[in-house]
Amino acid sequence: VIGTFAVYEDFRNYRSGIYEHVWGDFGGYHAIVIVGWGTDSSGTYWICKNSWGTDWGEESPYTGVRGWFRIRSADCLINQELYEVTGYYQSVSVPDAQILSDTIPASMQAGQSYPVTVKVNNTGSYPWSESALFRLGGFYQGTVGQAGAFGADRVYLPSGVTVQPGQNYTFSFTMTAPPTPGTYDKVAFRMVWENHQWFGQELDKTILTILK
Are strands 134-138 and 89-91 parallel, antiparallel or unpaired? Predict the structure, then answer.
């Protein structure tokens, strides 16, 4: 996949890690080769090959040669121009999301139900809908994750609703505190494209449940 993005002064000083623009003047647009992607607790990132030689960037995990970099998806407009090379050019759709706000309380009474909201922005280039299997999910890393204990494994978009790229959507749902009091420290939510992948920024909450 060929991508273009806005280059700023701090990118020229990049050496390793996932790049996100912080400082410096705009220096123009630049084309690179995208070879893959990954996810972490902050969202999705691209794995890219640059053309600035082997004295710049981080080492390739395959060859040990420098000239590579990782960049946060949607940073520096990188999701705006993506093309798959198949003998001709075609645009590539990419799912991504940013958590804007939530109303999940930090403490709940054991066994009680609470109406909550999570507001999400579609920062990718793929529209979300229930027919396309885009949902807000209780996020698990391995066996770690306690959203299910609050009855919130999946939150669905209403039928007929489509969240276009750039739009916000507020998921409204009910969480019921577990009957056992204690500290639940991995109540996490993230967007999921069912049967495909988790994507976007993770919302990670710690909730204290108490007796009445």
Answer: unpaired
